Amino acid sequence: MSSPKKRKSKGKQKYKVYDIYCGKCNTHLLTYHKYGAGKGILRLYLANIASPNLMANFVEAGYEQIKQVPNLSCANIDCGEVLGVPALSKSKKWVFRMRQGYFHRKLIK
Ligand SMILES: [Zn+2]
Hints:
Layout: E1 15-22, E2 28-35, E3 43-45, E4 49-51, H1 54-60, E5 72-73, E6 82-88, E7 94-98, E8 103-107
Zinc ion (ZN) is lined by residues 22, 24-25, 27, 74, 76, 79, 81.
């Protein structure tokens, strides 16, 4: 696999970086690169989840269809709240459809 260039050009960042937290217990779940102008986070594109690299994990696990992907749930075992469900976007990309009100987001940059 080829890795994308990691060149950082100042002031030309094309995405915003959000941290996503469980709305129930505040556990940090993932860091997300959000492209586009929309304010809300209705769906998370798996390929844009910066860490943990779920997409790589799923590819490694041999998942070929979105229905093989588990729900996005809180990493805190005592909580386990489901925050998003796997789905296909209109352009057939893998996404988590996020349950509004079940998660917090924090703009990092
Ligand atoms: Zn939680």
